[in-house]
Design a protein that fits this description.
Blueprint lengths: L3 E6 L7 E5 L10 E5 L5 E5 L13 E3 L2 E3 L6 E3 L15 E2 L1 E4 L2 E5 L1
Antiparallel strand pairs: 1-10, 2-3, 3-4, 4-8, 5-6, 6-7, 9-10
Bound molecules: FE2/S2 (inorganic) cluster.
Length: 106
């Protein structure tokens, strides 16, 4: 059964921005980037681009995508998949927003 972490208030994440969460298992070296889109959808991906590990949390959020700050790959926030012509996938995490509170599945 899924366990959900009460992460923060939706307003703690800037629109078209992100918040970085330490690895949930305490073992992984990769943090999680939690993104908020312009229309207040929330998505979470590992904070490492599938290309060369760029920090996705520092990327540009546009629509339901983020552009990696290192070499410009675009990733779909809902799936973590790189957009054509690039190929790769960032691990994604389930999120939900209830009454202005962001929950992250862990
Ligand atoms: S590391 Fe993200 S595009 Fe290269």
């Amino acid at each position: 059964m899924a366990t959900w972490l009460n992460l923060c208030s939706l307003d703690d994440i800037p629109r078209r921005g992100s918040r970085v969460v330490p690895p949930l298992d305490g073992k992984s070296s990769v943090s999680i980037a939690v993104f908020r889109t312009a229309d207040d959808a929330v998505f979470a991906l590992q904070d490492a681009c599938p290309h060369k590990g760029g920090p996705l949390s520092q990327g540009i959020v546009h629509g339901n995508k983020v552009t990696c700050p290192l070499h410009g790959w675009n990733l779909d926030l809902a799936s973590g998949e790189a957009c054509t012509p690039d190929v790769g996938c960032a691990k994604r995490y389930e999120t939900r927003v209830e009454n202005g509170v962001v929950w992250l599945e862990c």
